[in-house]
Write a structure and sequence with these properties.
about 240 residues, alpha/beta, Rossmann fold, 6-stranded mixed β-sheet, 9 strands, globular, disordered C terminus
């Protein structure tokens, strides 16, 4: 459903992402884990077609997001980090506009609006200008637009950023439900997020994939994700050298 083949992105001599190859099949929630600056956001932009790769290719449900952008976008729901919103609109106005832009007929649009309003908890903010909403509420609007057209695959960059604890639980539940029938790739550097949502992990560090497996395989025998995170990023050696 979501596939990367040798995906790379270079900016001059700087390597943002190198030779990323993985798949996210239907019925799986995959956490894209790694420290800040590891290449998670760049990879997600490459997968969505927001950026063109320097090498390699991406596929969304069999469609190349660069060569066949419209077909790929029909299958994909994308929530970028600090996702762009039309701040002068209300959530209702923006979602209606986006639904029409995606070609949803009136009956289908009404059905999907009811779904996202309920599942993204938008009722109380539905007719408030987006520029007056908190970061967490804007994030919920962004989640709603990603789900509006009933995609088959979701790419979510830090989906719980800015949410309060109750909102985090609701979004996690929504992602788990979607992951039963669709493909989900979500980026995070929060270890608790991985254990709460994902059943598979892709760990990246300095633009390279350093692990691809289940959560249990990542934990290993000591079952301590903090220790595993430190080991995969080289922080364990740094701590030992510093006597910490």
């Amino acid at each position: 459903m979501i596939e990367a083949k040798g995906l790379s992105k270079f900016y001059g001599d700087f390597i943002a992402v190198r030779d990323m190859t993985f798949t996210v099949p239907k019925g799986r929630v995959t956490a894209f884990l790694g420290p800040n600056g590891a290449g998670k956001t760049t990879t997600m932009k490459l997968l969505s077609g927001y950026l063109a790769p320097s090498q390699g290719s991406a596929s969304i449900c069999g469609h190349d997001p660069i060569k066949d952008r419209i077909a790929a976008s029909m299958k994909l729901g994308f929530l970028p980090e600090n996702g762009p919103l039309y701040l002068e609109m209300t959530p209702r106005e923006m979602l209606v506009f986006l639904g029409r832009a995606r070609g949803l007929d009136a009956n289908r649009l009404e059905e999907r609006l009811n779904y996202v309003v309920e599942h993204c908890s938008l009722r109380e903010i539905y007719d408030k200008p987006i520029h007056k909403l908190s970061k967490g509420n804007r994030q919920r609007v962004g989640m709603a637009q990603a789900l509006l057209h009933e995609p088959e695959a979701l790419i979510l960059d830090e989906p719980t950023s800015g949410l309060d604890p109750n909102q985090i639980l609701a979004v996690r539940k929504l992602i788990r439900e979607f992951g039963k029938t669709g493909a989900v790739l979500l980026s995070t550097h929060i270890l608790q997020e991985v254990e709460a949502i994902a059943d598979h992990v892709i760990f990246v560090h300095e633009g390279r994939m350093v692990f691809d497996g289940t959560v249990q395989e990542l934990k290993g025998k000591d079952r301590d994700l903090d220790r595993v995170f430190a080991s995969l990023t080289g922080a364990a050696e740094e701590r030992a050298a510093a006597g910490v």
